[in-house]
Design a protein that fits this description.
The protein has 519 residues and is mainly alpha-helical. It is built from 17 helices and 8 strands. A 3-stranded antiparallel beta sheet has the order 1-6-5. It has a 3-stranded antiparallel beta sheet with strand order 2-3-4, with helices on one face. About 5% of the residues have low confidence.
Length: 519
């Protein structure tokens, strides 16, 4: 009789038909779809329910459609192609279908473990109770047949001897024949049957032990399957979850396994699109696939613009994709702050408003054409004001020098050389006083200097002859004018004395105008 070969995985076949794992289950030996029995498993291999392709096709024809999302059946591809890539290719080929994200490898492994756990619990089967029926034992029946033949021969021989002695057939001969039969049967019952019973029980024990060992082996295989799946889950968890986390701790970028698969596929599509001789239709098809993958990247929280249609393969392959971790964001802020501090330092050193950049050496090159900072602009304005003030001061000094020379010559002409020298010495004293005020000797006074006050008063009170009248009215006006200028204490007296007032007159006016002593 031929043995049925169950080599067609039910779950994988349903996936290929667009039925998502979330709809598939296992209960009481049946693979279920949407909670309803779909197909009874012919066998279970490594946690996967198996059947024949013919049985699956027949059951799938009777599967009623539902409103649940479906995926487009994936086309045959290389064994190395990832589930994410296969799903993306399927969606592109049939864009009218509703896309369902592929199941992660760890989820598939957990589902297989769940299916294995959901199978009926392993039960050790006890052997049937031992019993012995000699009539069903070939050894006994053959021995019994042989004994009957021996009895017949023995009875025949006994009868022949009795007839030879003249006894013939009699009650004695029958007695002897029956005695021979009884002895033979007694020998079978007392000697052979116990031996056969022991042999039968030994065979029973051997069979029970072999059956127990086989059941233990089957149970061990089932446990090994669960152990293998657990180990597989650990490896997948390490590869698809723990390793990306460890890498994120070093780089500040977290790239989940799904994102890495999408990025690799996008790079592959870009390489194909940049191949020489590719047609416009082929490039359009590749672009549509790339759009789908970019949408998936965006759904994962990864910026897809780095792999946009306007980005070449060479540029995209240099990108470090991923989601910035909190540590990575903190590092970015620290780098930005460092760049800002470096730019501030260069700005302070050069007086130029430079923009922060990661290349600190380039900040000085940037400063060559950068605008002035606020402080530098204020310094320029102050320097310009200083230059203008210096030019004004120099011009004023030249004018004063020319004026003083003309005044000296006029004093010599009108009043003689002695008077002119006296006036020049007095002017020098005023200049010294002005210098004292300018260097802090004026106690914070910022008005007209004593020299300027003297010059102003001379211009105001000189008569046509160039002299200051000495009458009392003029002296009172001079006192009032100089007093109104608010010169520092002592300097006002010096100006008044230079204009012709004597100390007594000044004291008289101070008393008249109630000016406190010392002011």
């Amino acid at each position: 009789m031929a043995t049925t070969k169950y080599d067609y995985g039910i779950r994988g076949a349903l996936n290929n038909k667009g039925v998502d794992n979330s709809r598939i289950g296992y209960s009481n030996g049946y693979v279920t779809v949407d909670g309803k029995n779909f197909l009874k498993a012919g066998s279970v291999n490594n946690g996967s329910a198996m059947t024949t392709q013919a049985s699956f096709n027949s059951a799938f024809k009777n599967l009623k459609p539902t409103n649940a999302p479906i995926t487009v059946p994936k086309q045959p591809s290389a064994a190395s192609t990832s589930p994410m890539v296969q799903a993306a290719a399927s969606v592109q080929k049939s864009p009218q279908a509703t896309y369902t994200p592929p199941t992660k490898p760890t989820e598939q492994t957990l589902q297989r473990m769940s299916d294995l756990i959901g199978q009926p619990a392993f039960q050790y089967k006890a052997p049937e109770a031992w019993s012995y029926d000699p009539q069903s034992d070939p050894s006994y029946t053959s021995s019994l047949a042989e004994a009957k033949r021996n009895i017949e021969r023995e009875q025949a021989d006994t009868n022949a001897r009795l007839r030879a002695n003249g006894q013939g057939k009699s009650s004695y001969s029958e007695l002897v024949a029956n005695q021979v039969a009884d002895d033979t049967m007694e020998s079978l019952a007392n000697t052979l049957v116990p031996q056969l019973m022991q042999q039968s029980y030994a065979r029973y024990q051997d069979s029970a032990n072999r059956d127990l060992q086989l059941q233990q082996l089957n149970y061990g295989v089932q446990r090994d399957q669960m152990s293998d799946l657990s180990n597989l889950y650990g490896l997948q968890n390490q590869e698809y979850f723990q390793n990306p986390i460890a890498e994120a701790q070093l780089t500040g970028n977290y790239l989940p396994a799904e994102g890495k698969q999408i990025v690799n596929e996008l790079l592959s599509l870009k390489q194909q699109a940049e191949t020489k001789g590719i047609s416009a239709d082929q490039r359009t098809a590749l672009s549509q696939q790339a759009d789908t993958l970019r949408a998936q990247l965006s759904a994962l929280g990864i910026d897809p613009s780095r792999y946009g249609s306007n980005v070449s393969y060479s540029a995209a392959s240099q990108t470090a994709p991923g989601i910035r971790t909190l540590q990575g964001q903190q590092l970015d802020l620290q780098n930005k702050q460092a760049n800002m501090d470096a730019a501030t330092t260069v700005s302070d050193a050069t007086g130029r408003l430079v923009t922060p950049q990661s290349d600190w050496n380039g900040l000085y090159r940037q400063a060559a054409n950068a605008p002035l900072t606020w402080n530098a602009t204020q310094d320029v304005i102050k320097n310009q004001q200083f230059d203008r003030q210096q030019t004004f001061n120099e011009g004023q000094q030249q004018w004063e020098n020319a004026y003083n020379q003309a005044q000296f010559a006029e004093d010599v002409r009108q009043f003689g050389l002695s008077y002119a020298i006296e006036q020049d010495n007095l002017a020098r004293q005023w200049a010294s006083l002005d210098y004292e005020m300018a260097t802090g000797g004026g106690n914070g006074y910022s008005g007209m200097t004593a020299s300027q006050a003297l010059s102003s008063a001379r211009q105001m009170f000189r008569n046509k002859d160039g002299k200051i009248p000495t009458n009392a009215a003029t002296k009172q006006k001079i006192y009032e004018y100089v007093g109104s200028l608010g010169l520092p204490t002592g300097q006002d007296d010096q100006v008044m004395l230079s204009l012709g007032l004597n100390p007594d007159e000044i004291a008289k006016f101070d008393k008249e105008y109630e000016v406190p002593m010392g002011n």
